[in-house]
Amino acid sequence: xxxxxxxxxxxxxxxxxxxxxxxxxxxxxxxxxxxxxxxxxxxxxxxxxxxxxxxxxxxxxxxxxxxxxxxxxxxxxxxxxxxxxxxxxxxxxxxxxxxxxxxxxxxxxxxxx
Length: 113
Prior knowledge:
The protein is mainly alpha-helical. The protein is built from 4 helices and 2 strands. It has a two-stranded antiparallel sheet.
């Protein structure tokens, strides 16, 4: 590998993110994440799989940064959809909330700006 297809900062598409999540799930299912971190074999598997599926050679650090970021996003999403009056539309890929819920969230959001 000559490094010509290595990037300092990855530009992630939705398809790349889905592939990455699938790779991480696969690594977990085959026992490459025993506690809260992927082991050495897990990262090697993810790095190689990502290269094969996307043609991009991202480093462990780049992939770990993405992993850490999407974990934070997931926690926020999980907290949000467990609130009363809120759901998730898998068809639309959006949060479902009552008009009253959205009105309250918009007011709170503008209040903190």
